[in-house]
């Protein structure tokens, strides 16, 4: 008998998320009873302080697991019983599986970003890269970038201590010298081969760009994790200059591929999930 899956996504401002449809349609294709629900903090008028109650409620209602997104990927860590090696190393969780009375945290964001990067930007120069943002998603992306051979990563964040914590974490995992807190964005951008945005800036509810357009240049490749809208202001400005780009849909799909497997125990069809996501483009 194939498993029944009841999953959900906890985050703020997630009404436009394509994740529920992505999971449910693949569940249908696999012949599973698969239900995926949004748990949006904004219309519920809740914040990260509600996480303990939400996790307990999900367990009591026999959820199989939960995806976790902004702003909860790091706040959820103390509420979990176990962490996968990836989640522990990155210091952020985007997938929680309820199993045998335990809450087990995983991180599929790192794998998701890396897969999209390999498929679309495999041949780019990766000597010096600027990353905007050092939150939960930023931590996962930074790990992926260094694992994919980026030689030097400059991390910029509105919270300098958070950027320093991430740089320290990366030094522990990858050795000293490969990541540092950025101090002068204009200089870093002038020397950069690539730019990655891991902040919420560019989302429909937070329009704008994390980097002034004047700092972009044609030799740059630009990657984004925001996917609603799929073409952010940053990507639009970059493409106008002729830059190679990677939209946020890639990370959204490939992190969901692994999360689907963790929830259901069934290996999904990644090509089919990517095609489904692309069919939902507005």
From TrEMBL:
Positions of the catalytic residues: 73
Class of this enzyme: oxidoreductase
Catalytic reactions of this protein: shikimate + NADP(+) = 3-dehydroshikimate + NADPH + H(+)
InterPro entries reported for this sequence: Aminoacid_DH-like_N_sf (IPR046346), NAD(P)-bd_dom_sf (IPR036291), Shikimate_DH-bd_N (IPR013708), Shikimate_DH_fam (IPR022893)
EC number(s) stated in the UniProt entry for this protein: 1.1.1.25
This protein's UniProt keywords: Amino-acid biosynthesis, Aromatic amino acid biosynthesis, NADP, Oxidoreductase
Binding site for NADP(+): 85, 133-137, 225, 248
Gene Ontology terms describing biological process: amino acid biosynthetic process; aromatic amino acid family biosynthetic process; chorismate biosynthetic process; shikimate metabolic process
GO cellular component terms listed in the entry, alphabetical order: cytosol
Domain Shikimate dehydrogenase substrate binding N-terminal: 9-96
Superkingdom of origin organism: Bacteria
Pathway(s) where this gene product acts: Aromatic compound metabolism; 3,4-dihydroxybenzoate biosynthesis; 3-dehydroquinate from D-quinate (NAD(+) route); Metabolic intermediate biosynthesis; chorismate biosynthesis; chorismate from D-erythrose 4-phosphate and phosphoenolpyruvate: step 4/7
UniProt GO MF annotations: NADP binding; shikimate 3-dehydrogenase (NADP+) activity
Annotated function: Involved in the biosynthesis of the chorismate, which leads to the biosynthesis of aromatic amino acids. Catalyzes the reversible NADPH linked reduction of 3-dehydroshikimate (DHSA) to yield shikimate (SA).
PANTHER family on file: BIFUNCTIONAL 3-DEHYDROQUINATE DEHYDRATASE_SHIKIMATE DEHYDROGENASE, CHLOROPLASTIC, SHIKIMATE DEHYDROGENASE
Assembly behavior: Homodimer.
Family named by the database record: Belongs to the shikimate dehydrogenase family.
HAMAP family noted in UniProt: Shikimate_DH_AroE
Protein name: Shikimate dehydrogenase (NADP(+))
Naturally occurring in which organism (per UniProt): Pseudomonas veronii
């Amino acid at each position: 008998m194939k498993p029944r899956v009841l999953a959900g996504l906890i985050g703020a401002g997630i009404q436009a998320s394509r994740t529920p449809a992505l999971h449910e349609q693949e569940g249908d294709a696999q012949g599973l009873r698969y239900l995926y629900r949004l748990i949006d903090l904004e219309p519920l008028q809740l914040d990260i302080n509600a996480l303990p109650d939400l996790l307990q409620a999900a367990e009591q209602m026999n959820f199989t697991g939960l995806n976790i997104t902004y702003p909860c990927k790091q706040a959820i860590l103390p509420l979990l019983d176990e962490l996968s090696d990836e989640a522990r190393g990155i210091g952020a969780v985007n997938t929680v599986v309820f199993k045998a009375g335990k809450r087990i945290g995983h991180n599929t964001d790192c794998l998701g970003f890396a897969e999209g990067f390999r498929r679309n930007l495999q041949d780019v120069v990766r000597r010096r890269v600027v990353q905007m943002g050092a939150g939960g998603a930023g931590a996962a992306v930074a790990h992926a970038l260094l694992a994919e051979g980026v030689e030097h990563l400059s991390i910029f964040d509105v919270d300098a201590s958070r950027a320093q914590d991430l740089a320290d974490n990366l030094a522990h995992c990858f050795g000293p010298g490969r990541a540092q807190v950025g101090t002068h964005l204009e200089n870093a951008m002038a020397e950069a081969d690539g730019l990655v945005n891991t902040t919420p800036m560019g989302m429909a509810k937070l329009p704008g760009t994390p980097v002034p357009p004047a700092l972009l240049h044609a030799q740059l490749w630009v990657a984004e994790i925001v996917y609603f809208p799929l073409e952010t202001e940053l990507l639009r400005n970059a493409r106008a200059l002729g830059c190679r780009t990677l939209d946020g849909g890639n990370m959204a799909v490939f992190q969901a591929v692994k999360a689907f497997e963790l929830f259901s125990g069934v290996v999904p069809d990644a090509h089919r999930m990517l095609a489904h996501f692309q069919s939902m483009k507005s």
